[in-house]
């Protein structure tokens, strides 16, 4: 295969809401360029990009799929992404390595909530973006309404390059950059080029002039030319459009019918001629604070944006060449772990098809097999030239499940499989909670969870159970209490004896020292699970030897690790040990540890104990006409509304809700709003559990 330089490599990612037509457009682009001689369809499960078995089962994209094609002396790398935000990790990683984002809209719906979610990430990365309004041949399309929704999303810098119309029953597109009419035959394909009809000339001229002005705004030399000539030629307009795209201040809008192959060739021509190449983007900053030298002569560095495990191949690692170039059998070092990897093979990928290559240059996207120490988000660099590409920041989990193996003897196998899944998909977060004594899987929603379950069964041959996770409650007290405990055990020879008197109180930061005690020592312990234990030595007259105080404290701490009410962690308590007894022969550390633990437990149960529950702060973005249903549901979950803001057609609800009431919330919200609402959730605080709820929890 021909090796292209970085000025002739275009990396695009197709993004958009579910069922906007991304996979169909990718298939049509490959067909237009001659990479395939027959187009597949999603319904027939024979597209190049949707090649995984699970995608065939579900009839939708689940993974981001790298493809490539060659068009008029340019190489276009295409990444087709899923449209459902359960798979947002696949979308974000693809945006990260693309040079231009092609946002596909279903012409019947325009900008949808899925589009808006993706747009937030595009904006974060400041990537050049083209909008493509699809299905222009559909009876239900409203192109102008769809265009207005783009303007509402990105502002007045959205600019029409094309608009559709029908002439004598034939589907046509008027292109105001080239000032031509494209007339398509029935069933699509290669169009006829015609002058713009008289009845469209005024509108086309108006849109052309708007495009000229927008192009001129983004380049000082072009602005001077515009003032001088009153217009710009096509090449000058291309230059200005590219500058505007690079500044994230101009968003061209195209129209196509991906299914009928109308307008896709013109879109590819624009990508070739106008869309930024890898060489055009601003230099990227590394974690070391240096700019990446985006040249072939620079030391080689690769950024791994995706890994996939296939049973018959092992791990496939997808990367973008960030600097230098890479050849077969080259050795690179992993910046994260210092391990050396040898890239024995290099490929260009088209779905499941691999095309071997001997070399890839800066700006290109490729793949290799069977790397031992490399995961998604890693940087591989030339030995002796360390560089760390800034990793992708993935969103927090929205759904949490306790996960365990159906067969007990497969727990280790399950853990290993989940670790591999996480290394490929960082939005599948696995952790073991010592507190809950459960393995917890965090993911983006029920569809994401179903995909993980499918992968466990079909790829790793292990069956898992997914359950509601336990809640990490906290226990504390509301008043002071005293207790004493005598531990005595005699079993021939030296026995065990210890007696401990103590007082406990709720601890509040900044409270005065306890009154009525002769304080001889104070230890302040930051508890691993949050909060504090303040331990006072108030012993007078040596009734307990100082050497036994650490054992008393240890007994108290162990009791706090498994609280007397529900076995949850105990927090924010201060303890005064003020009296006791010991025996010259029978007293020892274990005796005082036991006595301290029992005395603390008795005092705790007499100190009006209370349970605290974790509260999460939710930010919910919901269409205005659906706010009522969402708020009613939140109130049933004991949520407290903190405020409501407006943003375009949406309301932003902020509320605090108990974690115990949020199990399955992602699914419920999707059902309540037909998938049009989104939410984020972060830990807020611990708050007292209502009395009736505490009774239920303690009795159970």
Q: What layout of secondary structure does this protein have?
A:
Layout: E1 9-15, H1 22-32, H2 53-58, E2 65-71, E3 74-80, H3 88-97, E4 100-106, H4 113-125, E5 129-134, H5 143-154, E6 158-160, E7 162-167, E8 170-175, E9 180-183, E10 192-194, H6 198-217, H7 220-229, H8 234-246, E11 251-255, H9 264-273, E12 301-310, E13 314-323, E14 325-327, E15 330-334, E16 340-343, E17 346-350, E18 353-357, E19 359-361, E20 365-369, E21 379-382, E22 399-405, H10 411-424, E23 429-433, E24 438-443, H11 446-458, E25 464-467, E26 474-477, E27 481-489, E28 496-506, E29 521-526, E30 532-537, H12 549-561, E31 569-570, E32 573-581, H13 589-605, E33 609-623, H14 627-636, E34 640-647, E35 650-658, H15 665-672, E36 678-688, H16 691-699
Helix pairs in contact: 3-4, 6-7, 6-8, 12-13
Count of extended strands: 36
Low-confidence stretches: none
Q: Termini separation (Å)?
A: 67 Å
Form type: elongated
Q: Name the beta content range.
A: 25-35%
Rg (C-alpha, Å):
32 Å
- Strand adjacency order, main sheet: 2-3-1-4-5-11-6
Biggest sheet details: 7 strands, mixed
